[in-house]
Structures are given as structure tokens and as C-alpha cells.
Amino acid sequence: MILKDKKDCTGFAAMRLFALLLLGAASALAQDAVTIRVNAAEKIGALKPIYRYFGYDEPNYTYMKNGRKLVGELAALRPGDVYIRTHFMLATGDGTPGLKWGSTNAYTEDASGKPIYDWRIVDRILDTYLQAKARPFVEIGFMPQALSSKPDPYHPTWIPGAANPDYSIGWSYPPNDYAKWGELVYQWVRHSVQKYGEEQVASWYWEVWNEPDISYWHGTPEDYNKLYDFAADGVKRALPAARVGGPATTGPAAPKAGAFLRQFLEHCSTGKNYATGKTGSPLDFITYHAKGRPNVVDGHVQMGIG
């Protein structure tokens, strides 16, 4: 779910009220059965495409042959209006792809702790979207190894079907220095503006992290609020017109996810901003993931969206 183009959280009450109503609606929908019947023999008219957002885990496949092909096919569904998002845009590594893994090496540090920024792989990913006439829905994550508060172990191994107890490791932890984290985001947006132009970058969405209410984030909700504040401040310092938001939680019909989203909205509305010391935090859009859990009951499919 996305609520667009609220410039900041000063005077945020109406937007927050609407979002809280959505939380209540999501809970109600999770309890009520819905029946949809389709008469495939009857023609009403052309099907208007409503799909415009796509996401995936492995960023390094993006610019490979089949990755470019798929991105092009997705972008062609709704030319100029499709947004694409991928994980691991800031993860440390040499760019070798893997299952539910990827890396760009965008941020490292020298022996003295001075930041080193390298946007080459990040640019290849974003270039692929733009060349296909899609737009980036930029996920700001995950944590570079040099910034992670628990950097080792860092590189996970995904075993399909297994419990994967060692998957959410170093890349999923809060930063050891929030100021450096905020500066990393600032430098990324600033670089993007220099490369692609203000108008282009202002048309993107900058989303802080992914599903911080589960194992993608090994910090508290308050830690995420702080992560968000420094990231949002970095985005806005680089380009005030840029759109920043979150928290990209799982479906709010679940109590834990709903509580996480609610406290985040309260923080953006009336909380103390960790980066600026002011009240409230910029929030141009709100995101959460309503995923289906299909189940066949009496020969019928129930989607279980929540």
C-alpha cells in the first residue's frame, strides 16, 4: 500500500488517521470471507493494466542478459510508469549473484575508517531500469559490512526449503554509526542527482529498508525509527523534492506488523527526530506488504491476503 506525496509529517494528522483506518480495515478483511465470480464468456471491455510495482531479491542478475530481458518485459506492461525494486543495494561484496543475495560494494572504509563510495554496480542496476523506461523504486538497504554493528558473519547462504538460521546476519543489523549511515544515503542521492538529473530522481521513490518487523532487521522498532530519520534526512538534504518513505512492513493484519506500523506513524507525526532534533520526520509515502497465503477449501482458492 502506498500513500503518495505528503511532503513531511508536520500537519500529518489526516494522513496518519487514514493509515490507521487502513490498519483497522486490514484486520477486518483478514476475518471476512469474500466471494468473486467471473463469467469468462461475457465481454465487458479491455482490461486496464493496474500493475506497476515489481520487486525481487537478487540485484546482480538485473544487468545480465536475461535480467535485462525480464526488466524490459515488465517495463513494457505500462510504459513510463512501472517501478522496480530490489534488495541488497548497499550490501558489501564483489557483485557475485546468489539466491536471495546480492551486493554492490557501494560503501567500504579505509584503514582509518574514512568512507569509500563506489557506485558502479548500483549505477548498472538503475541504468538497466531507466534504459528499459522503467523507474527505480529504490530500497535503501541493506547494511554495509563496515557499518554493521555485528559485521561477522556477513555473507549468508540460502538453502531453499531449509530453516536458514544463519541467513539474516551481518547485513540485517543497525549501523554502528548513524551519522555515517545518513551520510551514505546523502552521498547516494547526491550522486544520483548528478548522474540522472533532479527531475528524474524526484520521480523515484526512496524506501528505507525492507520488512523491519521480521528478521530483515535485528534492531528494535526505535532503532528502525532512528535508521529512518537519518536516511530520510540524507535524502532530503541531497534533494528536497525527493520522495522518501517506509517502513515496508509485512501485512498489518498481523498484530506484530500492525503494531510496528502504528508506532512508526506516531513517530513520524509527533516523535523527536533522531537526526535533526525536531518534531516529526519526512514521510512522503507509506508502504507495507499485503501478501497472499493461498489455500484451497472445498475446491475453491482462498487468497488469505493480509
Q: How are the secondary structure elements laid out?
A:
Elements lengths: L12 H19 L21 E4 L8 H11 L7 E4 L20 E3 L5 E3 L2 H12 L3 E6 L37 H19 L1 H5 L2 E4 L12 H18 L4 E7 L5 H16 L14 E4 L6 E3 L2 E3 L4
Helix pairs in contact: 1-7, 4-6
Q: Characteristics of this structure?
A:
306 residues; disordered N terminus; 33% helix; 6-stranded parallel β-sheet; two-stranded antiparallel sheet; 7 helices; alpha/beta
Strand order of the largest sheet: 1-2-5-6-7-8
* Poorly predicted sequence stretches spanning 5 or more consecutive residues: 1-30
Care to count the β-strands? 10
Biggest sheet character? 6 strands, parallel
Shape: globular
Which range best describes the helical content: under 10%, 10-25%, 25-40%, 40-55%, 55-70% or over 70%?
25-40%
- Number of H/I helices: 7
**How big is the Rg?**
20 Å
Estimated structural class: alpha/beta
Mean of residue pLDDT values: 89
- The proportion of strand residues reads 5-15%
N- and C-termini, Cα separation: 11 Å
Order of helical and strand elements: HEHEEEHEHHEHEHEEE
Description:
- This protein has 306 residues and is an alpha/beta fold.
- It has 7 helices and 10 strands.
- It has helices at 13-31, 65-75, 120-131, 178-196, 198-202, 221-238, 255-270; strands at 53-56, 83-86, 107-109, 115-117, 135-140, 205-208, 243-249, 285-288, 295-297, 300-302.
- The chain has a 6-stranded parallel β-sheet with strand order 1-2-5-6-7-8. Strands 3-4 form a two-stranded antiparallel sheet.
- Strand 7 (243-249), helix 7 and strand 8 (285-288) form a beta-alpha-beta unit.
- Helix 1 (13-31) runs antiparallel to helix 7 (255-270) and helix 4 (178-196) runs parallel beside helix 6.
- The chain is globular and about 70 Å long.
